[in-house]
Q: What sequence folds into this?
């Protein structure tokens, strides 16, 4: 309940307007349904009165009309007043619904109509531009456009076609308005970015929903593949709108990993690391995720590449980022754990041990903080820290076994 009140407070008048809009829309549907039922009843009674359903039904209807007429005569004043009130209220509601529907469809069509209007304006402008420039480039015209001396009749005709009025006065206005036009372009650019961001979010939400549905299917079945492919398509459409969106790149990379397409996932993560250059934690996550993919390939080249990525993640991104937070601690713990795995496969046991102990210490710190925290958000780190601690403990066991095997006689 408190959350609902908080949301209502944030939405304010906008939320109230949206709620009223939905109420009107639903009310309109019920009114249309009631009117349809009324028409059906009237037609049915007309058919009975005409004898289409037989004399028995006709007699029943006549008896009904007679009892209804008697009831009306007994309560005529009250019924007439109620009918008058319902008529006035019905007219008002119908008028409101009509206005609402006109606004509703006008709102739906407004972007298309605005686009068409702007395209027509641009087309007219481009048709006239050569003529306008020809007057300025006339051999008898001066070099300054601010005080044109041209053939007034021709210039007047051209400026009139563009809607600029008197040529001599409006030419100065046109040139002086350059700064205003540039400001308007800036506003349009910001609006374009806003629409891009909203469009990307819509694609990401649709893709995330499809990916969640795919997780409920049997792994590698046809429905699983179809829904995961559909989710990937949504993420790629988001990238078509904004190619360097960090969230879209990360979700596309994860979806490629689900589908087993590791090269495409690495490509998305590389782009994510570049796009998130001003966001240390997200850049670190992109670099560490690349290292995880390469570590699983277990070749000398992939392990060396993973090691280089982890050096950049830990030493160049996370450690210089001094602002302490649970997110930074978690990312450092994950990066140290992957470094430990990489060094273990490279048989650099001391370096692996150091990295895994660093990871263990940070996972334990997160787990203690989550258990003692009153903040619900901080508690969310508990499960992730517990899983990380378990995987680190497993890596330490494998490291101990590898050291033992390496020290065995005859080896």
A:
């Amino acid at each position: 309940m408190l959350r609902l009140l908080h949301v209502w407070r944030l939405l304010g008048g906008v939320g109230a307007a949206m709620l009223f809009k939905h109420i009107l829309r639903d009310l309109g549907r019920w009114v249309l349904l009631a009117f349809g039922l009324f028409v059906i009843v009237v037609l049915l009674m007309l058919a009975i009165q005409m004898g289409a359903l037989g004399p028995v039904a006709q007699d029943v209807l006549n008896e009904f009309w007679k009892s209804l007429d008697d009831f009306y005569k007994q309560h005529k004043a009250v019924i007439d007043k109620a009918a008058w009130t319902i008529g006035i209220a019905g007219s008002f509601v119908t008028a409101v619904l009509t206005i609402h529907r006109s606004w509703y469809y006008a709102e739906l069509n407004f972007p298309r109509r605005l686009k068409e209007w702007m395209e027509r304006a641009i087309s007219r402008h481009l048709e006239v531009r050569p003529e306008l420039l020809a007057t300025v480039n006339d051999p008898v015209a001066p070099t300054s456009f601010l005080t044109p001396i041209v053939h007034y009749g021709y210039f007047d005709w051209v400026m009139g076609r563009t809607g600029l009025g008197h040529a001599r006065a409006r030419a100065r206005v046109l040139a002086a308005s350059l700064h205003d036009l540039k400001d308007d372009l800036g506003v349009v650019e910001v609006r374009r970015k806003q629409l891009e961001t909203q469009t990307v979010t819509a694609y990401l939400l649709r893709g995330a929903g499809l990916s969640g549905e795919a997780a409920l299917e049997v792994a590698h079945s046809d429905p699983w593949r179809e829904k995961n492919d559909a989710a990937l398509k949504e993420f790629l459409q988001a990238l078509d709108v904004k190619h360097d969106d960090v969230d879209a790149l990360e979700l596309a990379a994860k979806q490629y990993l689900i589908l087993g397409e590791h090269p495409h996932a690495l490509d998305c993560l590389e782009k994510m690391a570049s796009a998130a250059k001003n966001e240390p934690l997200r850049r670190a996550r992109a670099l560490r995720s690349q290292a995880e993919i390469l570590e699983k390939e277990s070749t000398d080249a992939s392990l060396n590449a993973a090691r280089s990525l982890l050096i950049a993640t830990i030493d160049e991104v996370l450690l210089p980022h001094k602002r302490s937070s649970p997110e930074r601690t978690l990312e450092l713990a994950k990066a140290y754990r992957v470094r430990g795995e990489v060094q273990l496969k490279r048989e650099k046991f001391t370096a692996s041990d150091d990295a895994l102990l660093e990871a263990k210490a940070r996972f334990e710190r997160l787990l203690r903080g989550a258990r003692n925290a009153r903040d619900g958000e901080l508690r969310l780190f508990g499960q992730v820290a517990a899983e990380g601690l378990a995987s680190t403990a497993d890596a330490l066991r494998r490291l101990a076994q590898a050291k033992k095997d390496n020290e065995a006689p005859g080896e």
